[in-house]
Amino acid sequence: MPTVVHGLCGATPTTAPRPRVLVARGTYSERYDSAESVEYPLRPGRRTDRYLDLALARTLAVRPAARATLRPALTAQSDWDPTVFFAHNLPQAVPLIDADRHAPVLYAHNQLLRTYDRREARRTLGPAAAIVAVSDYLAEALASHLPPELRDRVVVVRNGVDAEAFTPRTRTDDGVLRVVFVGRTIPEKGPDVLVDAVVRLGRPDVHLLVVGSAGFDPEAPLTDFEAQLRRAATPAGGRVVFRRFVDRPGVVDVLREADVAVVPSRWPDPCPLTVLEGMAAGAAVVGSEIGGIPETVRGAGVLVAPGSVDALAQVIEGLADSPEELARWSDAGIDRARSRTWSAVRHELDDRLAPFVGQRPADRRTR
């Protein structure tokens, strides 16, 4: 999510004021310099607070603990110039914004309303000028929890890519197909499906690099699932290599060295960044036909049934056997990525929100 925020802030017109972003302490300014950070404390919520919030949500349609965390960061909002306020994955920030002065917008990267009934959604999101979803899939999932009068405020703006960073390299055919997975190494992301597919193929000309950790700490101990992944890869020997979590510049390097980038999610990923990043880097992209993945992949990459080792192995083998097919999907992906730069996405966002906020958001300070 910080990568999306950075992409949008970095695409802010030079004539507009510098954006401010409401973020958890320690999650943005240390990584990105595209905006001024307004921070709330990053602290693990007590289990009792979460239970109390859920109980009060069902009875009174409020979540006081969640709001208490955010409220101190918003005390200065009366001093801000009128602004479009994007609450990224923070539905409880929306009712804390002075909607008479500012235009609150919920920017949803995931299904945030799973525990909300329509009464709570109305009370929490009623002040929202609009609700942004990063895919059609997510928009439909959110709408199912919204009252009718809020569904018309949902707009879709799919994620973009830094096409200047993720540039394709000149590839030489050395007889090896380099396949990569980049993401959290958890069952929902499906890295085991990819490992099993490569092992099943048993081809010496197909190599796999799995990059990621269960979380975002490369020094964290391996989880049981990660240990199982490594055991499953044993029959492939050195053709399957594992690398723990890498930072954003490291992701660029990894994807630029790949011939094929696979996004084998089992769960309905709303709009994973790896799809466009792999395309921009020149890799042929293979993704699961689930969630919001097909909306970006279709026509510029190959879709497979989620969880199907056989289907994935068949696609990888086809790409290994046909340099022409590999090049075709690489070229299609590069074209798709170039059409989804963060600048293009920022203009799209402005256009989609203009009917809701009364003027183009680029003409107002964005938070």
From TrEMBL:
InterPro entries hit by this protein: Glyco_trans_4-like_N
Instruction: Give the signal peptide as a residue range, or say none if absent.
Output: none
Which keywords does this chain's UniProt record carry? Glycosyltransferase, Transferase
Enumerate the spans annotated as Glycosyltransferase subfamily 4-like N-terminal domain. 77-164
Q: Provide the protein name.
A: Glycosyltransferase family 4 protein
Q: Which domain of life is it from?
A: Bacteria
A Pfam family found in this protein is Glyco_trans_1_4
Write down the Gene3D superfamilies for this protein, in alphabetical order: Glycogen Phosphorylase B (3.40.50.2000)
CDD domains in the record: GT4_PimA-like
